[in-house]
Write a structure and sequence with these properties.
heterodimer; A: about 160 residues; alpha/beta; Beta Polymerase, domain 2; two-stranded parallel sheet; 3 helices; 7 strands; about 20% helix; B: about 190 residues; Rossmann fold; four-stranded parallel beta sheet; 6 helices; about 10% strand
Chain lengths: ~160, ~190
């Protein structure tokens, strides 16, 4: 079950309280997921600002991006950022909800360069558009694939299967 | 099978303890040599590749059948072992690499995925069998097949190669060159 919170200088409660204080009004629903993850929601307009501040924070400093995930909830999409802090040995799971009609969110490539391929995969599979991404094209599927196959409403097309 | 026929069909060193002669056919000699010097192409696409590679090492040792020379380039291969799931993005690459192999060439479809798509059948990016793209000689079932199963497939392929006729049944008709000074042949004569 993950790493033991041995090298964390502060308790999870104190860390959560610190994040709530620093990001008052920006992070919603901050909760602790034992043993070492803090889950929070963030409005998509504030994502870029929150990400930059999360990374630059001198005390906790979430410098490493583990992955970006795209999720289709049926009524809405969600882009999830999993970031890690070496100083506290903890993770933050940042959920950004996107409306179904307009699944667009700012890229975080310029903050965490590791987001590049992850955002491309999320675009490829779920169809979330990352505005400002340097090279937003398909990464796993072929270039002329039609649709985004991990969407709930995806219907398999004959055009995607030329070898029958 | 009598000892004498066995000695002719499967000649061994002890049959040549003294200067000796065997009679056989060109077909047999060529196909025997060809079937025992197959160069497989390392075409591992998924977990079947692990079994394919382990069959090349000491525990299972595909070298016993004269097939240990796995090559990473299609130019030097005559057998493509497709080991794993073929997806739509990889299919044109597979076709291209198959076309780059020199004749004669064979294809073994190893495992459930290469044979029919396997557990990923009807997936959004899966080709339901490698035979949709290239002609397959031997199908090996399993998920993944054990190295022994791969060996049986290879032996089946050897049997198939040995049935191949290299010498044409009817020799090509001999057409003598026109005699010197006979003049150009007309269309009626041809």
């Amino acid at each position: 079950m993950g790493l033991v919170v041995g090298s964390n200088p502060m308790s999870m409660d104190a860390l959560a309280a610190l994040l709530v204080e620093r990001f008052a009004g920006d992070l919603d629903d901050v909760r602790i997921q034992e043993p070492d993850t803090i889950v929070a929601r963030c409005a998509r307009e504030k994502l870029k600002d929150v990400a930059a501040r999360l990374k630059a924070d001198p005390e906790v400093g979430y410098e490493t991006l583990n992955f970006v995930a795209g999720v289709d909830h049926g009524t809405s999409f969600e882009s999830i950022y999993h970031v890690y802090s070496w100083k506290t040995n903890t993770w933050v799971e940042l959920h950004v909800e996107l409306p179904r009609a307009e699944p667009e969110v700012d890229t975080v490539c310029d903050i965490w360069p590791a987001a590049d391929w992850h955002e491309r995969e999320s675009w490829d599979m779920v169809g979330i558009k990352y505005l400002g991404h340097p090279d937003l094209r398909r990464i796993l599927l072929k270039d002329d694939f039609i649709g985004h196959p991990l969407r709930k409403d995806y219907v398999d097309l004959a055009e995607n299967h030329p070898h029958v | 099978m009598s000892e004498r026929i066995k000695a002719v069909r499967y000649p061994k060193l002890e049959h040549f303890s003294e200067p000796n002669v065997i009679t056989t056919t060109a077909d047999f000699v060529f196909s025997w040599a060809r079937s025992h010097s197959v160069f497989p192409f390392t075409y591992g696409l998924a977990c079947c590749a692990i079994e394919m590679l382990s069959s090349g090492f000491a525990r299972f040792d595909v070298a016993r059948y004269g097939m240990e020379v796995f090559r990473p380039t299609p130019r030097q291969c005559d057998l493509m072992i497709v080991a794993g799931t073929l997806n739509e993005k990889m299919a044109p690459v597979l076709k291209r690499l198959y076309d780059q192999m020199s004749e004669p060439k064979w294809v073994i479809s190893m495992g459930a995925c290469a044979t029919s798509g396997g557990p990923f059948y009807d997936g959004y990016n899966v080709v339901n069998g490698v035979d949709k793209v290239v002609p397959v000689d031997v199908y090996i079932p399993g998920c993944p097949p054990r190295p022994e199963a791969l060996f049986q497939g290879l032996l089946e392929l050897q049997g198939k190669i040995q049935q191949h006729k290299f010498v044409p049944e009817k020799p090509a008709a001999f057409e003598p060159a026109p005699a010197a000074g006979a003049g150009p042949a007309t269309a009626d004569e041809a």
